[in-house]
Amino acid sequence: MAEPMEERQLETVVVSAPPLDAPVEETEEIPNDRPVYRASQERTSDLIHTSLDLRFDWEKEQVIGKATLTLQPIFYPISSVTLDAKGFQFNEIRMANERTPLKYSYEGDLLEVTIDLGREISRDEQYQLYIDYVATPVAIGGSEAITSDKGLFFINPQGEEDKPQQIWTQGETEHNSHWFPTLDQPNERCTQEMFLTVEDRFETLSNGLKVGTKDNGDGTHTDHWQMNLPHAPYLFMIAIGEFAVVEDDPWSGIPVNYYVEPEYEEHAEAIFPYTPEMLTFFSELTGVDYPWPKYSQVVVRDYVSGAMENTTGVIFGEFMNGTARELIDQDLNEKIVAHEMFHHWFGDLVTCESWSNLTLNEGFANYSEYLWLEHQHGEDIAEMHRIDELSGYLGSVRQGEPHELIWYDYDDKEQMFDAHSYNKGGLVLHLLRGYLGDELFFAGMEKYLVDNQFSAVEVDELRMAYEDLSGQDLQWFFDQWYLSAGHPELTIDYTYSVEAKEASVRVRQTQDTENNVPAIFRLPTTVAIHVAGQPTRYEEVIVAQRDQTFTFSMDSEPSLMVFDPEYRILGTRQDSYDEEDYSYLYEVGANGSARYDGLRNLDPSSAFAQTVFTRALSDPTHELRQVAMSRMNDPSPEALTVIRQIATADPHSGTRAQAIEMLTEAGDESLPAIAQAAVSDESLAFPIVGAGLGALATLDPAEGAAVAESLEGSDNPSIVGAIGAIYAAEGNPDRLPYFEEKLTSIDGQDAIGFYAAYAGFLSSSDEETMDAGLERMAAIGVDQGASPWQRISVGKTIGDMQGALMAEATMMEDGPGKTRAGLLIARLAGIFDTVVAAESIPQVKAIYEQFRPAPVEEATDSPEKED
Questions:
Q1: How many Å apart are CA 798 and CA 16, to the nearest integer?
Q2: CB 89 within 8 A of CB 130
Q3: Do 144 and 418 contact (CB within 8 A), yes or no?
Q4: Which of 392, 462, 658, 714 has an alpha carbon within 20 to 30 A of 721's alpha carbon?
Q5: How much is the average pLDDT of 762-767?
């Protein structure tokens, strides 16, 4: 039955047009184009197997190749196929079982070849292409992470340089198609075999197992490498050189070996630390045994990236090289070995289907560094690493706009290799682990790998693996952390009401909401409530508002409340703590991150903070001992007693070296004996020796210079840096050859100090030496083949020299001296601008701007000053 109709009498409404002279309201223009979406590569043919027979022309830097590719249509019948092939000369293209050449089109930018198959081929039929070609790899571009996209590199091809002759490859992103024809996309995978013909003096390395070697009787041999498990073409690799091959014990029957230059043969296991142990740990952690037929690692010269996870054949840059003594306490090698190995599960076994999803490779690999450090060295050491990763991500956001982890609208795929895909990707996984708990997190990791092995994935497959296992809807988590940009910026206030007997935690999210940054992040976490003499109380909370307060009944005022006590939340935080609160946080912090936050927020100028730093000198974590020392000023007698103990017996060499430097600054009476022991004990790590050498030179410059001379043959950065400082202070012009020799060999952070010492040396030299020195630094600064650390060192040194001279010039009276200073300032400014203009890495270019000196106002006499 219908309801009765209600009738209403409406007021009379008059509708009229606006006056002709009325202002027109502006409306936001609707875009005419759809948003950019970097889709996964469309596949018309499936690449099933790749066979390559390769020789190399060192003089012309060419690859002479014969490729046999087995393919099959995906679904629709095809009559042509397009392959990636950059800069090729084709001698012949035909079906492998036929003699008739196929027609092909290879025009324009010479990046792709389209082959007419001569007939229609259905999805039930495989076809084999035979391609006889010559490839001349030439760089088209590069990126911050991978400085050249040449694909295959001849090192010292004419044998005229002071370095080994080598050939090696770097395939990521789509660079392997510079040296063999393929479908160069991450959502493709195939099995492979390589026949590599080289001179007898060379060793070769490729993916899979070496199944045979043929002596050609002409001074060459052909190695046959075979990979019977499918992987992506960008993971194909070769390395050729006069390597020493060091065999480690097989892991579960799988060969494990290391390719190094002969001088490092006895140090190979130190260069690639814990390799067998990591294979065991990661297999057990993921629930999936290492799935590939071998594990090889090789160090090459002039590598264009840090390292690359080529399946079963990881390539590293020469920064990994070192003797066992040089590598004491150097955890960089350890972390990079872990990173590249974990890729063999996340990246090689399960591969991102598009570069937009790169964090599914790199985020897991980055998190493996935390997982390994936590397992091998404890949670606090892992937390120190997490702090560095967070700092790297936040620094990158300050230098540019944030973007989504799964980034579908990048301008260039090479932009994906940044602190989002790497650092933030790993930190988000740590968040997910904290939310789900260890058991579920690692079980979900196993499910993801098993369900998707030997296939390409997008982020939803990771989400669904965890949803299927947990029974939860995790779309909110993935929308927030993977498909949105940015991070929460939290202001946290803690209060207690005596009348209500309530403790409150107010959490405000203050982040800017531009660039697809959420206004409100959903943050499940806990609040730790500390009351002296009582067990810590933990309250679970979920932040789901822009401004939210949580209240807890408390009979007495807490000693301290800590929001997110494990410091898992990815973002920034500002707590309403005073000095005593931060001291208490250091004492009761749940992990190294909390204790670090307590130390770094104390004011070093207060006596109270100095007492806390003195206690922290005995912290079980060496990095926190270092933080305590770095924040001390004028150490007390009690502190000096502990610092002396650190300087003589601390188990970590960097901490021990820092203590020696502190004692040197303090002029401590114990220094002579400590310095002598540091420079004479050949079992000590080089940072300790370098610190001891600096101390010795402070005590007795002549003796310090004499010991420095005896150590000039060392290339260790700590020793080179210490010698540079001594020689700069000495001002002896005969030391110039030492500086010139080491300028291009020293690398890493130590290069900054060495270049500064060189500048000090030049400042006391004659005009001709100064002129030549500036030219030398300018040449290094513009050379994109020099290491980034060397280029950064040039920028900082030139900027510092210019700034110091500008300040000095303001105090000069007009005359020849001021004129010369002005000319030198202009020259330094020109060098600085030239170095900045030549820089190819945006992040390094941004770092330079920090070194650009600010203008200095001319000093003038005050009107009140009497004559």
A1: 71
A2: no
A3: yes
A4: 392
A5: 90
Q: Which amino acid is located at 314 in the chain? A: V
Backbone φ and ψ for 495, nearest 5 degrees, come out as: -135, 160
CA–CA separation, 319 and 337 (whole Å): 13
Buried b (16+ CB within 10 A) or exposed e, 802-815: bbebbeebeeeeee
Q: Tokens for 804, please give them.
A: 């110091």
DSSP, res 422 = I
- Give residue-wise pLDDT tens across range 276-308: 999 999 999 999 999 999 999 999 999 988 999
Residues 6+ apart with CB under 8 A from 638: 614
Q: Is 849 helix (H, G, I), strand (E, B) or coil?
A: helix
pLDDT at 840: 78
pLDDT confidence tier of residue 21, bands split at 50, 70 and 90:
low
- The span from the CA of 211 to the CA of 15, in Å, is 88
Who contacts 792 (Cβ-Cβ below 8 Å, separation ≥6)?
A: 751, 752, 844, 847, 848
pLDDT band at 145 (very low <50, low <70, confident <90, very high): low
Give the model confidence (pLDDT) of 501-542 as tens digits.
Answer: 999 999 999 999 999 999 999 999 999 999 999 999 999 999
Helix axes 607-616, 622-630, angle to 10 degrees: 150
Residue 571 DSSP label: S
pLDDT at 13 over 60: no
- How far, in Å, CA of 798 to CA of 820, rounded? 17
| CB neighbour list of residue 233: distance below 8 Å, 6 or more residues apart | 47, 50, 171, 176, 177, 182, 183, 184, 185, 188, 189, 190
For every residue of 302-324, DSSP letters joined together read: S-SSSEE--TTEEEE-GGG---T
Burial 329-348 (b: 16+ CB within 10 A, else e): ebbebbbbbbbbbbbbbbbb
pTM assigned to the model: 0.91
pLDDT at 251 over 90: yes
Q: How high is the pLDDT of residue 5?
A: 40
> 477-481, 598-602, 719-723, 847-851: which has the minimum mean pLDDT?
847-851
- Separation of alpha carbons 434 and 432, rounded Å: 5
d(Cα 206, Cα 210) in Å, to the nearest integer? 8
> Is the N-terminal amide bond of 173 cis, ω within 30° of 0?
yes
Give residue 22's pLDDT.
59
Name the DSSP class of 494.
Answer: E
Please classify residue 711 by burial: count the beta carbons closer than 10 Å to its beta carbon, then call 0-12 exposed, 13-18 middle and 19+ buried. Answer: middle
Please check whether residue 227 is in contact with residue 266, taking contact to mean a CB–CB distance below 8 angstroms.
no
